[in-house]
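Quick question about two entries, pasted in order.
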Amino acid sequence: MTGWLRDKATLVTGAASGIGEAVADRFVDEGARVCAFDRDAAGLERLAARHPQHVVTVAGDVRSWDDNRRAVRTAADAFGRLDVFVANAGVGDAFVRLVDLAPDELERAFDEIFGVDVKGYLLGARAAVPALVQTGGCMILTASSAGVFAGTGGVLYTAAKHAVVGLIRQLAHELAPKVRVNGVAPGGTLTGMQPAPSLRDRGGPRPETSRAERIRVANPLGLAMRPSDHTAAYVLLASDQARAMTGVVLESDGGLRARGLWDVAGGRDL
């Protein structure tokens, strides 16, 4: 533990698995206290069991205003304040193209993906603002390489994550100088994130080794990234070391900005 977040009171959504779980674990290691918010009650129990003195949990739905308000209140009651809000819960779109979505399917999937990936962020941010203003705290929103580049998600996930990047910039503008708002844009990562319910039959299950290889060959560093690979970016943005940073999106994606020079079939020997 380096203590970059010593005694920071934090709220992390989507904290029961994947990147959210890794962020919660790393924040505790850095000295923070964490309120973990997720629909997966069993996953929350496992997280709390690892950190019984440092984690409280809220089982709920980020699409619900009441659940978001309850999560903020739980964090404030448990820790006496709120310093950091991390909006991270998300669902994917199985890389489905627009022309492959029937109109009724498009409507359902849009509501599912934007409900979690955009509305959930807005409701969480709105619930957290009063507490963060009191502490001069910060927000961190999980974007994605799909919020920065085309081709790293399907049409709905890409649109939703571009919306998240817009939220980061607009909220940074609206909430300055009281609250800093930044984001992290992970690239393809080995997580358990599921597609939206209406798209879960698209493509069928694929072996984990195949998925890891697809991620590895798509980024110049050749990394099959894991959730823990991204946590340092969240730690930096949550810490006082980043007090001059707002409206920033840190790209933690294996170097996708350099991929135009890269042979995605396997890279080049130097």
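Here is the second entry:
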Amino acid sequence: MSGEGLVVIVPSRSRPTAARELADVFKRTCTADTELVFAVDDDDPELLGYRGLLALIRPNKSMVEALNITAAEVLKRDVTPKAIGFMGDDHRPVTRGWDSAYLDALAALPGFVYGNDKIQGANLPTQVAISTSVVQTLGHMAPPTLHHLYVDNYWRTLGRSAGCITYLPDVVVEHRHPVAGTAPVDDGYLRVNAPEMYRKDREAFQAYMREHGPMEVLAVREACAGVPR
């Protein structure tokens, strides 16, 4: 059974302050029935800092594993949301009603929707909401062969190839990132943005799309076609 809202999953490690800031921003900017869920490692040295937030604690996983595992938990609910989204703990919705805009866009064109992150803009969905039917059909939010990077390339490629992706330039969900000078460089950033991580995830993304891309595009088209509008 499908519900009316949006669930946004945020994998986070050792950034409880950022998580709380994001939760506060959600309270100020959400106008729909939107739920924020953090995916946190059980060995996180800052684990206690997430107390009081809605957080699913999991064994230490990659960001993609944490995202997929948490999405699978959401799909087990008796009532599932209309869409499942992703943000980093360094994203900050700016536009009030951004979540309602995402749900409206997915009602008009099921599939993928993203806003303006002030860095990549239309180029990449660094944050995204995906129709639940698409996640159910694919069996994941992102390819399990990825670790952290190239998930946005995956969503863009599937959405464009299937003709079911919407970009909302006036809906701002800012990505506060060192590359833009809006966030400091910390250990987490250095770990997941290392050149070797880029190489491994780029190669994994390319290999995955060669093997699974055509079939997944067809699957996404069918999943989107079956969503009532």
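Reply: The chain has a mean pLDDT of 93. The longest helix spans residues 195-225. Hope that helps.
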